[in-house]
Amino acid sequence: MALSGARKDSEESDDDFSSAGSWVERFLASESGAFLCEVSEDYILDKFNLVGLPKEVPRFEKAYETVACASECSESLFPRYEKEAKLLYGLVHARYILTAEGLERMKEKYRRSEFGVCPRVLCSRQRVLPCGQSNKPGKHRVSLYCPLCKDIYSAPTSSLDGAYFGKTFPSLFFMTHPDAGLPERPERFVPTVFGFELATDAEKAAGGIQ
User: Fold this and answer.
1) Which ranges in 69-199 belong to alpha helices (H)?
2) Nearest CA to 122 among 188, 206, 191?
3) Within 10 Å of residue 62's Cβ, how many Cβ atoms?
4) From 1.10.1820.10, 1.20.1560.10, 3.40.50.740, 3.80.30.20, which CATH number describes the 18-107 domain?
5) What is the pLDDT of residues 138-176, one digit of tens each?
C-alpha cells in the first residue's frame, strides 16, 4: 500500500494530508466536503483509530489506500473508490472531532460561521454546529444543532451523512469550549391577543408558538 510520505512546507502544519492533488484535499475543497475538517495524517495512519471500520466500509483496503494517498499515488484510485473513500473518511472524521485536536479545528470553523446560522428568527443568527441523529451511516443526513434554542434543523447546503459527525459532537464541543459566547437564554415569542398574553392552556391550544 502506498502511503503518504510527503509533508507540508515549513510554513504549514506538517501533520496533514496537504500534497497538491491528494484525494483528501480534493474532497475537502468540494462543496460536499465543506462541513468537514482536515483529519491529521498521523491520526489516519494510526490503525488503532480505525478499529471496527473494516466492517462498516466496503472494500476497506482500497478505500484506505485512496484516503491515505498523496498526489504521487495513482489517481486512478480516486474515481474507482470514491464512494468508499468518502464513507471511510467520514467515519474517521466522526472519531477525530471528539479529540482535543479535532475539537479545536471544528472550533475555528464554528467561529468563522462555516456551518451557517440558526433559521429561527429569535435566535438572531446564532451560529450552529453539524450533528448526526445516528452514529450509524445511512440513517440520516447531517443536521444543524443550535446551542441557543437547543433544536436541530435540516442542512440545506449539505448532503453529508450525519454519522460523519455523530450524536456526541455538539454536546462535547460546548462542554469543552464554554467560551463559545452564548447568551444566557434564548428569547421566546410570547403569543398575545390585543396585547394580553394568552393563558397557558390557550397557548397550548394555539400550538405552543415559540
Assistant:
1) 77-80, 82-96, 100-111, 169-176
2) 188
3) 17
4) 1.10.1820.10
5) 999 999 999 999 999 999 878 899 999 999 999 999 999
